[in-house]
Design goal:
Blueprint lengths: L6 E5 L3 H12 L3 E5 L3 H17 L9 E4 L9 E5 L5 H15 L4 E4 L6 H4 L9 E6 L8 E6 L5 H13 L3 E6 L6 H4 L1 H12 L5 H10 L6 H8 L1 H15 L8 H8 L33 E9 L3 H11 L2 E7 L14 E4 L8 H10 L5 E5 L5 H5 L8 E5 L9 E5 L6 H12 L4 E5 L7 H17 L5 H12 L5 H8 L1 H15 L31
Helix pairs in contact: 1-2, 7-16, 9-10, 16-18, 16-19
The structure holds nicotinamide-adenine-dinucleotide.
Nicotinamide-adenine-dinucleotide binds next to helix 1 and helix 3.
């Protein structure tokens, strides 16, 4: 066991360095904050005082001592470098920290995008060097990624882990790969959202509504505006440059906005306009009618969880709801049915069901089909009455999905869309109309996040449990992506991603290990988390 570390040395008193210093002081450590720029010191002190007041711990600031260059400290130290993201500068700072603190110090970098192993060349004993990746703002974010370089030894990881726990933060262990866990697995949240937007799926505010409806604290567009489009793009660029993975390629609309200096809140516009303050939104659930609807006769075809759930929910809104569990007897569906919802299995194309229903039922019967699994556009070309078909997307259950995407195909009539909207609103779910894009919005975004998480686990970046923990604590996702994937199911996700890949390129396709989501037991859930702000 190493002796108790008493002094924390933080290099760089900017956004992250000052935040880490405060967190350490608040948890009883003496802190030396190295900052050569006098004006940066003054700004940092003012911020520290304000933030300490918020923590109800103003006295802790007295445990932080500013210096302009690293100097020896008593006992064993932990040094954390948090200077700007430039390899040459970081290496110089690491060298001067090491020579001032001696060989006993544990030395860490807070880099978001550089290779820890490459930076370790600046440290005389690279086995005591690792990444301690804090999130912004450190005082609120509960997660710290401990990044092991090629030469980091177990003792250093153990020291780092116990230090992070003494800061009352949750450590997760990540390999030294581009974006580590969080910044990598979160990429599709932004990239796929922008790709859907770029393809004309819907305005950013509608897509944000869908994302919040699926449980994300903020939608991808409002979150990028908050983080700063330039900062977010720099992270995407760095992960893309280092992985070369086509699925992670940054999106042109973001580059265009950055080129126009539309960086989000900080410049007054980005995906949203902030000239009259931040846009507000109303996510209240639609009011559920007090009386049962007797006009419609609803038939649900399906046998899985979604079919059973929809049957239960719709039975509270409609007087006539039937669950049709036998696909062999579609010809016995009552002709007076006004709405037929085909749930299917989520994993196979249901064009044949639409074709059968189209010939069996009169043109006034509306048909709603799972647009994640079925190529409805192709199917409707073979129908006599394509105007009565709308697509919907339900990923796993409506329990936590408060907004449903409904697809407005070229042939779909307004009456059909209105009825689809009325149906989902009658069970308290918001509806967002989408132009047809493969995987729709939630399917492609959540499916690609889960795919990235599975890929990271398969590549040995971290364990499945740590990936889930990291995404819940580091980005406030409503659940870990692996756990989420198990809930949705590997076969369903496979289908969504295969359709995405066949439309937009093989790079977006499912990882071959996605099937493990159907095989492994569900991990334990963890406690709630705080607000997220940045990368
Ligand atoms: P920042 O620009 O806010 O702060 C950097 C500070 O380092 C400045 O005050 C600067 O004066 C100081 N500095 C420059 N040269 C120095 C030197 N030789 N010695 C000591 N201090 C020096 O940057 P930041 O946003 O705090 O980022 C710092 C690091 O943290 C980067 O590696 C970044 O990738 C990483 N990071 C940032 C965030 C974030 O959201 N900002 C999140 C996680 C990790």
């Amino acid at each position: 066991m190493s002796p108790l570390v008493e002094t924390i040395v933080v290099a760089g008193a900017g956004t992250m360095g000052a935040g880490i210093a405060l967190l350490a002081a608040h948890n009883g450590f003496d802190v030396v904050l190295v900052e050569p720029d006098a004006s940066a010191q003054t700004r940092a002190l003012a911020r520290l005082q304000k933030d300490a007041e918020r923590l109800n711990d103003s006295p802790c600031v007295s445990r932080i001592r500013f210096v302009s260059a690293p100097e020896p400290v008593p006992g064993e130290a932990i040094a954390i470098e948090a200077v700007p993201e430039r390899p040459d500068l970081k290496e110089a700072v690491l060298k001067s920290l090491c020579s001032a603190l001696g060989p006993q110090a544990l030395v860490a970098t807070n880099t978001s995008s550089l290779s820890v192993s490459e930076l370790s060349h600046a440290v005389p004993e690279p086995e005591r060097f690792l990444g301690l990746h804090f999130f912004n703002p450190p005082a609120l974010m509960k997660l710290v990624e401990i990044v092991s370089g090629e030469e980091t030894n177990d003792e250093s990881i153990a020291r780092a882990r116990s230090f992070v726990q003494r800061l009352q933060r949750t450590p997760v262990l990540a390999e030294d790969t581009p974006g580590f866990i969080v910044n990598r697995v979160a990429r599709p949240f932004y990239l796929q959202a922008m790709r859907a937007h770029e393809a004309g799926a819907a305005p950013a505010e509608d897509l944000d509504t869908l994302a919040r409806g699926a449980g994300f604290r903020m939608g991808p567009f409002e979150l990028m505006d908050l983080i700063g489009l330039d900062v977010n793009l720099a992270t995407s660029d760095s992960v893309y440059e280092r992985t070369g993975a086509a699925r992670l390629e940054p999106v042109q609309i973001q580059r265009d906005l950055v080129a126009q200096n539309k960086l989000g809140r900080k410049t007054g516009s980005g995906f949203y306009d902030y000239s009259n303050g931040a846009p507000t939104h109303d996510d209240a659930a639609p009011e559920v009618p007090g009386t049962l609807n007797e006009d419609e006769h609803v038939v649900i075809i399906g046998y899985d969880g979604i079919a059973l759930e929809l049957h239960e929910r719709l039975s509270k809104a409609y007087a006539n709801v039937e669950l049709w569990q036998d696909e062999e007897t579609l010809d016995r569906i009552p002709l007076e049915a006004t709405i037929v919802i085909d749930i299917g299995d989520g994993a196979t194309d249901r064009g044949w069901v639409l074709k059968a229903l189209d010939s069996l039922l009169g043109p006034e019967t509306m048909l709603f089909a799972d647009a994640y699994a079925t190529d409805i556009e192709a199917a409707t070309k073979r129908l006599q009455h394509p105007e009565r078909v709308a697509g919907y997307g339900i990923l796993a259950s409506l329990e936590h999905q408060n907004a449903v995407e409904i697809v407005d195909y070229e042939a779909t009539s307004d009456d059909t869309l209105e009825l689809a909207q009325e149906l989902f609103e009658s069970i308290g779910r918001r509806v967002v109309l989408l132009e047809p894009v493969p995987g729709l919005f939630l399917g492609r975004v959540i499916g690609s996040i889960i795919n990235e998480a599975v890929t990271a686990v398969e590549e040995g970046v971290a364990t499945a449990d740590d990936v889930d923990l990291a995404m819940r604590l580091g980005t406030n996702y409503p659940q870990g992506p692996i756990e989420w994937g198990r809930e949705i199911g590997g076969a369903r996700l496979n289908r969504i991603l295969k359709r995405l890949a066949s439309a937009e390129g093989a790079a977006f396709g499912p990882h071959r290990a996605l099937y493990i989501l159907d095989a492994e037991p569900q991990p334990e859930a963890d406690a709630g988390v705080e607000q997220v702000t940045g990368e």
